[in-house]
Structures are given as C-alpha cells and as structure tokens.
Amino acid sequence: MADKKSLFIWIGATLGLSAVGAGVGGFLGITIIDHVKAFEKELADRAPPLVTPKYGPNISLMDLPPIISNLSEPANSWVRLQAAIIYDNKLEPKPQMLAATISADVLAYLKTVTVAQIAGASGLEHLREDLNERVAIRSDGHVHELIIETLVVQ
Fold it and tell me: Which backbone phi and psi does 53 adopt, to 5 degrees?
C-alpha cells in the first residue's frame, strides 16, 4: 500500500510540476511575443518613408556616343565627354535621332568652352546645368536629364 501511495504522490507531483511548467512557459512565451511585436512596431515607426521615384514609368536611359572636341582656349586642349540621356519613351518615337541631334549640339557647345570654365566642382556643375538646359530645349522637353558619365580634359 505504501508503494501505491508513493506512486500516486510521485504522479501527482509530476503532473503538478508539469502544469506549473506549462503555465510559466506559456506566460513567458506570450510576454516575449508582446515584446517582439512592440519592437517591430517601434522599428516600423522609425523606418524612413519610402522614396517616390523622380521619373515616371515610361522613362528610358540611352548612352550617347563619346563626344570628342577641342576647347576654345587653350588651343591645344581637348575634351572627351561620355553622357547618357533620360527620356520619355512614350513621347519620343525616334530616340536614336534625338541622341544624334543632342550629341551634335553638345559638340557645338563644347567648342565654345574654355578649360577655366569647366575647372573644379563648380565648373562641372555649371557645365552640367548648361548642357541640361540645351538638351531640354533641343528635345522639346522629351529629355528629362543629361547625365555626365565621364569628362576628360587633356
């Protein structure tokens, strides 16, 4: 009888401890899940807002052929410009012809520039702005931007 009684006590203690363990484990699990959800919400609140695209869905990029020209001053200086245009492919049915026209216009413009005008960061910025203005006028607004990829002055 003592053996049966000790067996029931052992089974009761095991079931009791299992119930306590399950309760504590469930409580800790719920607490951890709440903390993780609160942390995710905090991270989502701190995340930077999504950036809206600068251009619409009908935008294409086309590389222009390299433009090599001499500068106006000094007489023995040369420039090599590689650029690309960002244009609206819905509005422009013949982008190759537009690229050729823009290349010729940029070539004509570079023949009027001196080395002093394009020297330094501000000179490069002014060149970029001037070229973007000329490209916008030449393309009737179909080209959004001219990107200068490389500029080598020799």
Answer: -65, 145
pLDDT digit string (tens) for 37-79? 999 888 888 877 777 777 778 888 889 999 999 888 888 889 9
Q: Which helix (H) or strand (E) element contains residue 133?
A: helix 120-138
- DSSP for 24-77, please give it: HHHHHHHHHHHHHHHHHHHHHHHSPPPPPPSS-TTEEEEEPPPEEEE-SBSTT-
Query: Quick one: CA dihedral 51, 61, 107, 71, positive or negative?
Result: positive
For the record, the structure tokens of 26 come out as 């469930």
Distance CA 120, CA 74 (A): 17
Contact of 88 with 144, CB cutoff 8 Å: yes
Residue 36's alpha-carbon distances to 23, 39, 46, 65, 134, in angstroms, are 20, 5, 15, 55, 55
Instruction: Read off the pTM.
Output: 0.63
